[in-house]
Amino acid sequence: MQSTIAQALQDARHHIEDLEARLLLQCVLNVDAVYLAAYPDRNLNSRQQEAYRSLIAKRIRGEPVAYLVGEREFYGLTFKVTPAVLIPRPETELLVEIALSRIPNERVCRILDLGTGSGAIAITIAKLRPHAQVIAVDCSSEALTVARINAQNLGVSNVRMLSGDWFATLGPQQFDLIVSNPPYVAEGDPHLSEGDLRFEPIIALTAQEEGLAAIRHIVANSLHFMAPGGWLLLEHGYNQAPICRQLLAESDFRNIFTCPDLAGIPRVSGGQHYDRTRATS
């Protein structure tokens, strides 16, 4: 028996949230939200009904909507996502916002994004700062494939994707800004068995040393790749701001700060490279 758009949505609402039901149906029909509202009496054919039921069943099992529809909006841009990459989150937009505030519009700057995943951070920066030269690094070849597709889809040509473990394959380079949303969840954290985290790549979520191993590595090594006066910006967990600021201070960063996200949670910390040579000359 055929269902109309309105009937299909009504049935789905018994199992999943209304917004999710609409997003999944938009994906099946390859239409936008306006279409669903404008044509509630349009019939779904048998193939569309089966595809919709399949997506609803997967969502009921907990699979993230972003993976089911294959995309997620971030900073006003649409990014392809797959289970090979973390789903871009609104709180990470703060990291991009702070980075953009430190990148002049008309000057060539060299930017490094460590652990780029879908490329959301690097590509957004590159698109909004077209004079910047951005390098995005990830150890996952599958993630880099997604990131390259996103760069192409969004028409961004000033970002280069590199395979590597943090700084290992960079060679002698200096950057005006280094940015990273590294894995910072402690191994065994109970949140890993909840919500979308159950389906996201564990290598991009967790780190040893109570979630601090990647952050420690980045802070300890970034000065070797940073131009004098350059900035290091890091996203971190809700309780990691104090240790991040301590690590930055111990590595001789200056102008150290922490910014909260829209929920008031300390989310991004950073510091500026202190040029000892210039300071003592």
UniProtKB/TrEMBL annotation:
It catalyses: L-glutaminyl-[peptide chain release factor] + S-adenosyl-L-methionine = N(5)-methyl-L-glutaminyl-[peptide chain release factor] + S-adenosyl-L-homocysteine + H(+). One of its GO terms (biological process) is methylation. Residues 109-190 form the Methyltransferase domain. S-adenosyl-L-methionine binds at G115, T116, G117, S118, G119, D138, W166, N181. One of its GO terms (molecular function) is nucleic acid binding. Residues 5-70 form the Release factor glutamine methyltransferase N-terminal domain. Its EC number is 2.1.1.297. Keywords: Methyltransferase, S-adenosyl-L-methionine, Transferase. Substrate binds at N181, P182, P183, Y184. PANTHER family: HEMK METHYLTRANSFERASE, MTRF1L RELEASE FACTOR GLUTAMINE METHYLTRANSFERASE. This is Release factor glutamine methyltransferase. The gene is prmC.
